[in-house]
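User: I'm putting together notes for a lab meeting next week and I want to include a structural view of one of the chains we've been expressing. I don't have a solved structure, so I'd like a prediction I can at least talk through. The sequence is below, exactly as it appears in our construct file.
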Amino acid sequence: MAKKSNSILVVGFNTRPLTHSLNKAGYVVYTVDFFGDLDLFPNVNDVIIVQKALRSNYEVLKDKYSEYLAQFAIQLHQKHRDTRYLLIGSGLDDAYKEREQILDEIKNSHTISINNNVNILKKSRDLTHLFNILKTHGFKIPSSCTFENFQLSKTDIAFPLILKKKRSAGGINVFKIENKKEFSTTIRSLEKKRFIPTEWLIQEYIEGIPVSCTVISNGKECEIVTINRQVIGEKFLNSPKEFMYCGNIVPAELSIFENKLISEISIMLTKELGLKGINGFDFVLKDHYPYFMECNPRIPGSIRASESVLNLNLLDLHIKSFDPNEWGKIKKMINSAKTNKFATKLVIFAPKDIDKNTLLKINNLKFVHDKSEPIRRILKGEPLCTVLYKATNLSKSYNGAKTIVNKIDNIIG
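Assistant: Thanks for the context. Below is the predicted structure for the 413-residue chain, given as structure tokens.
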């Protein structure tokens, strides 16, 4: 019989990669997930799927999914109140009210939160605060100013420039603006929705190679897990937005200097913020210098690719990093892990509405994960599946993953 002391409730937009590793590590897994991918179900002991529970789809629910994730997390915890751990994944990064609702639910139980606390999250997601820390330590940052202080006629930030939320996630609220006319058009478009000027920044556009850094820490000490290339807004993956997250290549295969500087910035920020567990930092490399973009104070999307090349169960290490007695073992395991392989993760979006029969054919391919359950059509722009391909070098890994993407394109027709 499974031990309740080894049980965990996982809440997030896409929990399949997290539940996969936790199940492999021997945890009893309960999860609240938005999509309910086909390959999620073998990993879990109990589950609530947001789309199924509400009998709706991504397009209808996308603006309020954090509220539903929280509601169903509370519901599932009430069913399993003796759950040992709570892990919050993607989808609730900036949903502080919803996170606090979940934390209120567990506070009178034996469930332990293995997440950064809300105050740390707020600091980690505040770009102005992070840029100030970086400037204090002498690191270069993109020129930026708050939207309220920005004046088109007097700006020192040249076009093209970036308009982005101070707390953006996955590249959703990031816009590249080419000129004054486009700036005005974009603002008018945003004002038709829910545009709060205090939430937005104007930032210098840094053209370069997008990379990320995954770290593990205990709140005081920090180790680098992997440094990764990011795949952003690729048309061959049908990305619905220019800066949408579409995957990673792990490791990034950068120069010693680049790796050293990325590591230095990531470790400094981790310690300054007091982050715990596994977290991620995003950068753009321009002229070999890493310009910081944002912090993801949670387990990042590159985690399965990192696990694949390190041959480590990083979810298990994340949980153990909250136990002061385990840090020495974690540090030793991370430092002794060898990255002699490369893994490419590519997230494919639907180029058009995809029917059930087409989904069945895609799901039968090797190296395909996050398989959409063939019970309804996948709408254009929705995530379709993920490809994860490992090989002996970066080129073979990336090209191998692209070969699978080509097979999927041929199936879709």
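A couple of points you could mention at the meeting. The first strand starts at residue 7 and ends at 12. Residues 84 and 111 are 5 Å apart (CA to CA).

User: Perfect, that's what I needed.
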